[in-house]
Amino acid sequence: MELPILFEDDDVIGIDKPSGVVVNRAQSVKGETVQDWIEKRDLRFKNYELRIENKDFYDRAGIVHRIDKETSGILLIAKNPQAFHELQRQFKERIVKKTYLALVHGKLVPEEGEIRAPVGRLPWNRQRFGIMPGGREAVTKYKRIKNYDLRIKNKNEEFSLVELYPESGRTHQIRVHLKYINHPIVADFLYAGRKTARDDRTISPRVMLHAWKISFVHPASGKPIAIEAPIPDDMKSII
Prior knowledge:
It contains six helices and eleven strands. It is an alpha+beta fold. About 20% of the residues lie in helices and about 35% in strands.
């Protein structure tokens, strides 16, 4: 497996993760992951003696954050422990700025807005998240870019192309927030509803969410860095 590299220097790699590729290795995961790709590319991550002082960095092969399997787009990887911890700090303190693109059901109104609702894991389904009173604070700002009329299962439906700016980084945050305001992402098998997602998959092969842009402060030089991942072909073919 070869992964497109958007940015690389002595401290950081920014890759364009294709949809369908899992980020971290796990017993339940079949096929090659981003973590496998890193470890083949940089053999020091296989040196278990190095793990003692910087266990988290080596266990995660420098992967600073995560995006879902079906989500495409930018993923940051640190090449040394110092860069790893500094980028983690920037994520935690919300210095890192992210922009996502999503195709969602319906006409999103108002055109710009903010979704502020706590996200937590559902007690009755540990694979899913939802808006929970005891969940963690989560904020997603959005801007509607364009509307579309698409034909699905012999009927026309309205959709919106949306830019999303998550200010927090909760698991499934964007997907849960868009479901919460009744505009689920196209083909989202967890949050759009079983029948809706099944019908969506006649025009979309996966959850239509793309990690489009990211900006951060370089962990060594202190200079601002901005990276953009091209809109993938499967999203372009719809929008």
